[in-house]
Amino acid sequence: MATYAIGDIQGCYDPLRHLLDEIRFDPGRDTLWLTGDLVNRGPKSLKTLRFVRGLGDAAVSVLGNHDLHLLALANETLDFGSRFETLENILQAPDRDDLIHWLRHRPLAHYDRDLDTLLVHAGTHPKWTIRKTLDRAAEVESALQSKKYASVLEKMYGNTPKKWSADLKGYRRLRFIINTFTRMRMMTGHMSLNFTHSGSPWNARKDLQPWFHFDAPASDDTRIVFGHWSALGLLVLPRLISLDTGCVWGRQLTAVRLDKRVPRVYQVPGQ
Q: What is the number of structural domains in the chain?
């Protein structure tokens, strides 16, 4: 039995299948962890979504910001535009409702105690422990899976509030949690979210730091696996693995085997 984590697919179905061949993935024996952003930008979002859903319990995928865009489009809480044209065939598919229902029930965070590893799309707040990370994720998951999910999808857009407080309530609280899990890259020294810089962290303003550079109870002992940040690229450290290697931009799609003492990296060419 093996556990592999794979970075953002974004509709790059063919590279995904090539990568699974490369690692000799067996859904009856192995498990895939997917960092989210299954869809959008790439040419085969519908095929990717159907394939991952068809893997059943052999695949764990957390929600990314592009997955949330698809949910918002499906619920008509987001206007369709050219940047979403690769999602149109999902919205017109005969099994659209089943796919959207399945996607809406994906987690924002996944933790495996045996591997002591946390899977998220963009990151987790430096001051959240693993327990608090999972609790905050559960707040959004519960809302998305409730009757008020359309309102959550409508209210999730926006860059404020930028700083966490346990006193945050309602949609502002949910928006901050969603932004942390699915959009975060850089933070100010006071731990406010910053959305102006999406390039390499090494080229950022001096007052900005990657979220994972802060002393963090969530990552002191636990390994965190994430994607979202193609400009950061592949990073494999004892307690941190970054996996978005820009498949949709023609770079690579990357997998890392997690259940070995020394993680092994596999890559195939991107779209």
A: 1
Tokens 């399945």, residue? 102
State the CATH number of the domain containing residue 174.
Answer: 3.60.21.10
Other CB atoms within 10 Å distance of the CB of residue 154: 14
- pLDDT one-digit tens code per residue, 230-246: 999 999 999 999 999 99
User: Are 183 and 194 in contact, with CB atoms under 8 Å apart?
Assistant: no
Asked whether the beta carbons of 30 and 4 are under 8 A apart, the reply is yes
Residues of the domain holding 122: 3-269
Residue pair 11/48 in contact by the 8 Å Cβ criterion = yes
Handedness of CA 221, 241, 102, 151 (dihedral sign): positive
Say what the pTM is. 0.97
What does the pLDDT look like over 86-122, one tens digit per residue?
999 999 999 999 999 999 999 999 999 999 999 999 9
Torsion of CA 31, 131, 105, 49, to 10 degrees: -40
How far apart are the C-alpha atoms of 128 and 125, rounded to whole Å?
5
Q: Where are the beta strands (DSSP E) in the chain?
A: 3-6, 31-34, 59-61, 109-112, 117-120, 186-188, 193-194, 208-210, 223-226, 235-237, 240-242, 252-257, 264-269
Q: Which of 167, 197, 164, 200 is nearest to 179 (CA)?
A: 164
Of 206, 136, 143, which Cα lies nearest the Cα of 176? 136
